[in-house]
Amino acid sequence: MAELQQAPSFLLLSLFFVQAVHFANSQSFIGVNYGQVADNLPPPSATVKLLQSTSIQKVRLYGADPATIKALANSKIGIVVGAANGDIPSLASDPNAATQWVNSNVLPYYPASNITLITVGNEVMTSGDQGLMSKLLPAMQNVQNSLNAASLGGKIKVSTVHSMAVLSQSDPPSSGMFNPASIDTMKGLLEFQRATGSPFAINPYPFFAYQSDPRPDTLAFCLFQPNSGRVDSRTNIKYTNMFDAQVDAVRSALNSVGFKEVEIMVAETGWPYKGDSNEVGPSVENAKAYNGNLIAHLRSMVGTPLMPGKSVDTYIFALYDENLKPGPSSERAFGLFKPDLSMTYDVSLSKGSQTPNPNPGANPSPKPTTAHWCMPKNGVSDAQLQANLDYACGQGIDCTPIQPGGACFEPNTVACHAAFAMNLLYQTAGRNSWNCDFVQTATLTSQNPSYNACIYPGGST
Fold this sequence. Notes:
Number of helices: 13
Strand order of the largest sheet: 1-2-3-4-5-8-11-14
Distance between the termini: 30 Å
């Protein structure tokens, strides 16, 4: 197998418990978009109870709906509120309009409602409206000044949200570059964000990347599933998923224009569970794999190659379907939950499913259940097993037992090493069925594959 960096077992254990404590307290990096272009949504009070039953700690609103903001009071859930694109001209030209906006949409609810960020406009920089683009920074500055006047400048940040199209180049990730045609305006925004400490909010969608390149290997790359990876020719960094590649392209673009200090926030990302017959990619299986594996990736705290050891704040699109949205059917099929508050599919967001188990073989319940291990299916090629092995060990699990001298190094075969790594990833990623998919090359078994001193962690289901 490829040489992997070793770490002392006590260090890994320490890191695990630090991570477990972090999970137990909160998962502040996991948020959700709460769009309301629908006529069948449950009341905000019911939605807040739903959110409190999950590990979701942040909600992004596209506007500033009073009923929703009020319902979120005293929930401790972080709230992003938004000023619409149509508000930008008045916010930019009249400081009093900005003050009125803050007075109406923030002051009546804060601090009981934990408003943390105001987004001014959505994807303005790729709207093609030069007049609106030129007004974006003045609007943000006036909103910030109004917050400052209310002594909230250090508590509530001001940003705007961008599509990935603000980059004129993103592949390979190290070549990430902002569109030269609007670079002066972008630099002005970034100067403001650096000065105020607000995040650069971006909407990366591997789903759309797959639609433009619908090959099986691209799908696996987009869904965080085992794949051969893609090497950045400039840095020799191997990427194993599209999300990291897209976020690092943004990081490279920010670094290239001198804004290394500006943090990134993923304002939207998701995958539809159904679509029109001519749409490539929407399905329950794919949506569950993308969102489930994304959440597991964030929880691992592995980070991206250019931002290791931390997870960027990520708002999944979306909490509910929005049945009145125009466009293809997929636009109305991103919801994690249904209007009756049931799950569209399970991605381990319920409280109790998010804390990693320091001893995957231990059963916390006194009721005996069956332990399962994730093993390769018979007949899988060595090439696919090697891809599974590389993928699993690249997700932050401890693969030292299958390195030379490790308890599971012998027999020194790709099949044995891949089996150990695939099972370990399954046990640590949540023990969901999709964690043991590996592009349909793995299966669950109740037979313990451990041998001699080589112990395969086993989890109860």
